[in-house]
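Async update (no meeting this week)

Hi team, since we skipped the sync, here's where things stand on the single-chain job. The sequence we agreed to prioritize is pasted below, unchanged from the tracker. I ran it this morning and attached the output directly underneath so nobody has to dig for it. Comments welcome in thread, and please keep replies under the output.
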Amino acid sequence: MDFKKHLEIAWVLTLKHIASLIIMTFVMLIVSVFTIGILAPVTMAGYTQSILLMLREKREPKIPDLFSQFHLFLPLLGFSLVVFIVITIGFMLLFFPGLIISLFVSFACIYMIPLMVDKKLNLIDAVKESYSMSVSKGVLTDNIVIVLIYIGICMIGSTVFIGTLFTQPLATIFLLSVYEDKIKSGSQEKKAPKQ
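Output:
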């Protein structure tokens, strides 16, 4: 996996669309805060779709895109609540079970939202396919590095609110650039004749 290429794509596209990405990220964060996180998953789905269109069609991200995936509201809210409860129980028992669960969910479900908005998969199929993409498609260590880079970029920005406005788009573009590569390589494998 060429991590440098994906980071360069993320950097260039973030700078190219910096104003619209910052505004869209700001609106997403404000909506998430004012709804106590209830709309966070579904606005993240719209955010993901908008950035995916930017990658594929060179289309400028727009604020209305955030609200374009409301048909995913209930599945994403239910999934988020279940994950939140399980992680909270893990942290209450001992610190490490919660940490391990958090890392496993991050690893297994890293491509879940892109698959739901792009391939129109339902929640269960998206989780299965995301896990499959993380474990079997490509090198396992590459996928661990992808998750660590994504989380690392987000954590660097989360230390300061203003930093999040820049690092969230950067991390999302990086992840979706990797996702695009995986989707293309997967479709090429299907087209290749079996020997």
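Quick observations from my side:
The chain has a mean pLDDT of 90.
Residues 3-180 form one domain.
Reply here if anything looks off.
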